Amino acid sequence: MKKGITLSDTIGIQAKEIKEDTWSPMRNKYGVSDLRLPLSEILEYSLQQSDNNACDVLFRLIGGPQVSDSLMKASGYGDITIGSTEDEMHRAPYLCYQNRATPIAMARLFDKSYRLEMRHDSPVHEAVGAMMMLCGTGDNRLPAPLAATDAVIAHKTGTGGRNTQGRIVGINDAGYVFLPNGRGYAIAVFIADSAYDMARTEKIIADISKIVYQSLEN
Description:
Layout: E1 10-13, H1 25-30, E2 35-38, H2 39-49, H3 52-62, H4 65-74, E3 80-81, H5 86-91, E4 100-101, H6 103-120, H7 123-132, E5 152-159, E6 168-178, E7 184-194, H8 198-216
Antiparallel strand pairs: 1-2, 3-4, 5-6, 6-7
Helix pairs in contact: 2-3, 2-7, 6-7
């Protein structure tokens, strides 16, 4: 992303960047046309609603997936690999396997971000952290067992399509949980090539989240 850009800066989006055959609440609201939206709104669509078109606009702003990948490697996250845009994966589903990470690496990233960077490093980091606390996807995943508690979760989901065997390529969730006692923990659960349907796979994630929460709440 360009140095010096702020959350209030408006970003030009060309109609050709707004793909029709993909998940995109942004497209549902604005249609397929040239747009100018504040960076903060594009981030909200991507982080809170998993908007594929918004994600690719952000890739374009930063210089592409390879720049994101280099940033991860330079930051010490060698087990996080970013190689393809949402549009590229949609056109060639096998590329979904090119974007990958270990749960441990992703949990490390969330832990570092929420304990250190997003609280005071920059307005953008703070905004990103706040946005993920209002994530609107994956309520049946990591947040499910926390709904009846005083814990607060900031998280980001990831969901893939089906491979040639009919299995769901990826059903994922990663986040940071703030406990009422002032403690917190990062957690990431990734399920690859699930042979179960979405509901049963999400329940696996929720069950793991419940076990972790119950072991750390006191």
